[in-house]
Specification:
The complex is a heterodimer of chains A (462) and B (442). Chain A is of the alpha+beta class and 462 residues long. Chain A has 2 domains: 23-231, Cytochrome Bc1 Complex, Chain A, domain 1 (2-Layer Sandwich), CATH 3.30.830; 252-460, Cytochrome Bc1 Complex, Chain A, domain 1. Helix content of chain A is 41%, strand content 19%. Chain A contains 17 helices and 14 strands. Chain A is globular, with a radius of gyration of 23 Å. With 442 residues, chain B is an alpha+beta fold. Chain B folds into 2 domains: 35-234, Cytochrome Bc1 Complex, Chain A, domain 1, CATH 3.30.830.10; 257-438, Metalloenzyme, LuxS/M16 peptidase-like (Cytochrome Bc1 Complex, Chain A, domain 1), CATH 3.30.830. Chain B contains 15 helices and 12 strands. A 7-stranded mixed beta sheet of chain B has the order 1-2-3-7-4-6-5, with helices on both faces. A 5-stranded mixed beta sheet of chain B has the order 8-12-9-11-10, sandwiched between helices. In chain B, a hairpin with a 4-residue loop joins strand 5 (102-107) and strand 6 (112-119). In chain B, helix 9 packs across helix 12 (362-379). The longest helix of chain B is centred in the middle third of the chain and has 20 residues, at 141-160. The chains are: A alpha+beta (462), B alpha+beta (442). Chains A and B meet through strand 1, helix 3, strand 6, helix 5 and helix 11 of A and helix 1, helix 2, strand 5, strand 6 and helix 4 of B. Strand 1 of chain A pairs antiparallel with strand 5 (102-107) of chain B.
Chain lengths: 462, 442
Amino acid sequence: MRHALYRTVFLLLAVTLSARAQDASLSPTRSTLANGLTVLVVEQRGLPLTAVRLVVLAGSAFDPPGKEGVAALTALLLDKGAGNRSASQVAETVDFRGGTLEVDHTHDATFVTASMLSRDTDVFLELMADMVIRPSLAEEEYLRERENLLASLARTQENASYLTDVFFNRFLFGAHPYGRPELGADSSVARLTREDIVAFHRSWYVPNNAFMIIACDVHTTDVMRTARRLFEGWRKRPLPRTVFAAPPAVNGFSLHVVDKPDLSQTHVRMGTLALPRNHPNHIPLAVASTILGGGFSSRLVSRIRVDRGLTYDIRSRIAPRRERGAFVVSTFTKTETTGEMVEAVLEELRQFRRTGVTEADVLAARQYLSGVFPLSLQGPRALTDQIVDMELYGLPADYLRTYTDRLRAVTVGEVARVIRRYVPDDEAILCVLLGPADRIIPQIEHFGTVRRHSMDVQPVEP
Amino acid sequence: MTLRTFFLLIAVYAGANHTDAQPPNLSLPVTRHVLANGLEVFTLENPTLPIISFYTFFRTGSRNEPVGRSGISHLFEHIMFNGAKRYGPKEFDRQLESIGGYSNAYTTEDMTVYYEDFPADRLELVIDMESDRMTNLALTEESLASEREVVKEERRVYVDNSVEGHIFELLSSLAFTTHPYRNPVAGWMTDLDAITVEDCRRYYSMHYAPNNAVIVLVGDFQTDVAMDLIRRYYESIPAQAPAPPVRTVEPPPYGERRATLYKYAELPVLLIGYRAVAAQNPDVFTLDILQILLGRGESSRLYRKLVYDEQIAIELSVSFPWMLDPGLFTFYITLKPGERHEKAEQLLYEELERLKNEPVTEQELRKAKNILEAGLVRDLETNGGKADKIGNYALLFGDWSMLTQTMTRYESVTAKDVMAAARTLFSDRGRNIVFMMPEEKP
C-alpha cells in the first residue's frame, strides 16, 4: 500500500535469536566442495518456496584505491548477461517464473539473492552459477550500467539519511576502507574501465571466497546434488593479500556539520567505534543498545520522542561488520530544535554511562530480544538472512541454536562493563549533523569547535 | 454469532513449460466469527512456530476525515499507543516488549491497522491491551501536543523533504477535485496544527467501535481457547451507531491535468496517474495484469523501452493499489539527469497505445500470471502476511473469501480482456501528469 504511513520505521527487527524456534531450521546441513565453496542447506516445510543467497566475500572495502565503485559496478553487471544468456534472457528467465533476483553489496560482501517457487529451484541455481562464474561483462552492458550508477550516485544527493551515514562513516573510519561510500564516487566511477571490472571479478569471485545458503521445502540431498553439479567446476584461486589501515581513534567531542540548505530538518548521527560482529561482547552490547534505543519502550524513544516530540524516529544500533563497526545513535529533528536534540542525546548517553542499568532493564531487554527472534525465521527468505549473518561474520556453527542461552546468561555486571567500554559520551564522540549549516551552527557552537563541510566534503572555513 | 469455516485452496500454477507438473495446494483453514456487538474475527491456526500475529483493522482512514481535519486518522493511530485505562501511558510498549513482542500500526486512505507479533503463551495480555484501547483510550492535551509534533516530523521526512512523498501528494490533489482521496494520509501541516482534543474524542467515538473493526489472528493457538478470551474481553464493548458513509463520488474527468513541481533534487521525475476502478470492480484482476506487463521486472515492456533500449530513465514503477473507491493507476519514472518529460511521455503513450491495439502474446500473459501468483504465495510467507491479507480482503471486498478466488480470477484473464481494459483505462481525458523539475540549490 503505497500511501501507508507507519507509526514508525522500526520495521527491520533487530537480528536476535531464540531456541524456541524449530531446531531443524537452526542447524543447516553444511558441505564444502573440493574447490572450497561452502554450501549450507536448510529444509523448511510449508510453502512451496525456495530462497537462495550466494555471498562473495568482497564488497566495496575491496575497491582498489582510486577505483571506488568497482565492487558496485561488478555487482550491477552480474545479471546483465551470463553463460549463454543475454541480459534480456536473464530477465525473462526470472520474470517468467515469477521469481525475484537481486544483487547488492556492503563494504564486506556482495550478495546474489533469489526467491522462487520450489519447482524452479534448479533453474535459478543454474542462473546464479552462470552469474558468478561466467558473467559476460560485455562492453555495451558495462557502459550502460556505468551510466546508471552515475545517475544513482546523483540521486543519493536527495537521500539525507543515506548521506548522513556516508559522512559519518567517512569521518569515523578515515583511511580504513569502511570510510568509503559503498557506491563509489562520481570522480572514481567516471574513470573506471571494463578491465577494472574483469580484474575485480577474477581476483575475488572465487569459490574459496564465497558461500551459498539454500532454504527450501525440497530434500537436502537433492538440492545438494544440483549445487555440486553446477558449482564444482568453479576454479579455486589464491586470494590477493589485503591489509586495511586502522581507523583513527575518536578523541574529544568531534563535531561536524554538512551543509544541505534545502532541508527543513537536521539528520543526526552520534557515535564511535565499537566492535566486530563476532566479538564476544556483542551480545551484552546488544542488550545495552536495546535498553538505550532498541524499541518503543527504550529510553531514547520514551524520553526524546514520546515525552518531548522532538523526532519521529530515534534509535541506537551496533553496525554489524566483519571488522570493527560503529555504535551509533541515529535520529532527525526539525532544524530549529537541532541544538536541543544534540543536548538531549548527550544527556541520555551521560546518564546511561553514569547510572547504568537495573536487573529489570536487563531482564526486559533479554526477553524482548529472544521473543522477536522467531519472527525473523518465518519463511525461507528470512531464514537465509539469519544464516548468511552467521556465516558472513564468522559466528560459531551453533550460534542460532544457542543464542537464547547466551542471551539468558548476560548479567547486569556485563552490561554495565560494555556500556563503559563502548557507549560514548562527550569525552570521545563523533557527531555528524546534515542540514542547513547556517541555521544549525549557532545552535551548537557552545559544544565545541564545529567543522563545517560542503556536500563534496572539502573542509570549508566557517 | 455466526461461525463458518472456509478452506482456502491456493493452486500455484506453473509456467507453460511446466504443464506436466501438479499444482501444489496450500490449505489455509480460516474461521470467521461474529460477536453480538458486531466485531468480526478471523482465526487461522499455524503451529509451525510458537508465535502469534494479532491484527486489528478499523474501517477508517483519511477518506473518512472531515474538512479541516486531514491527518487525524494517522495522528490517532499514534495516540492509540499513549495509554488507556488498564494500561496507562507507555505501558502498551513496555508490557509488550518485555514479553518479547513487537507492535506497529499503519494508516491508509481506507483503513487504520494495528498489529502485534508475540510469543504464543501471551495471547491474553495482548487481547487485554487491545480491547482496553478500543474503548478506554485516554485522550489528553499533553498526549496530543507531543504526538502532534511527532507526526509533523514524520510528515517533514516523508513528504516535505522527499521527492516521492511530495510528488505523490501533488498528484492526488490534482487528480481528485472532490473525493477525499485528494487529501494526504499524513494530513496538511495547518490541519495537523489545528486538531483539538475534542476533535480526537469525536473521531474516537465515531470510528473506534467493535462494529467498525475486524480482528485477524494467525499463529500457534487453539481457536476455541482464543475465541473464549476474545469474547471475555471484547463482548462487553458496546456497538455504536455506524459512522456516516463517504457519499462523495469523484465526477468523471473532463480532461488532462498537468502540474509542475520545482524541488531541490538531482534527477527529474515524471509521475502519471490514470483514474482507475475500485477494488470491488471485477476489472481489478485485469488491471493487475496490466501493471505487471508494463512495469514488473527488467523484462517488462516499460523497463525494456525506457531504461534498457532508450536509456532515458534509471528506473520506474507502475502501481495500482486496490482501494475502496476508485483510485489511481500510476507510472513513476525516474529520469536521467537533464532528461525532459516530453520524450518519456511519448514513449510511454506509444506503449499504452500498443496495448490498446495489439493483443498480448500467450507467453507474456502467462508470465504476468506467474508473477502475480508467486507474489501471492510470498505474501503469505509469514503469519503477519497472512493476517494482513485476510483483513485487507475483508475490508475491501466485505468478504475475506475473495482471497480464495484470486488465483482463479487471474487465471481467467484473457488477452482480449487486457486490450479492453487498456482502452478504458488509458484515456487522455483521465490522465494526470506531474513533472518534478530539479531546481538549482539555494
